[in-house]
Amino acid sequence: MPNKTAISQAFWTFEGLPSLVVTAEASAFSMASPPTVELLLAGGAKADILHLADHGVRGNGHGLVYEKNSDQALQPVLQWIEQNVEERKQKGGH
How many Cβ atoms from other residues are within 10 Å of residue 9's Cβ? Predict the structure, then answer.
């Protein structure tokens, strides 16, 4: 396992980067989402977690693009992008 210094150096490019981790209530990977966000935050990213069920998108697994309601699942993600990525661009970020 890499030491903390190596991990810190690997994440320097995440400084201030808007990052979103999307979870779906029926996904086997949903338990990995909070630690993933914590890792991104530790690397300096502006990381958020978006629970689709909190936005009325229910029953999805981890293959969101393959679900019948994939268009509905995409809407809260697009809203987050507009609020976080576009705002960063307006402030002069990349």
Answer: 12
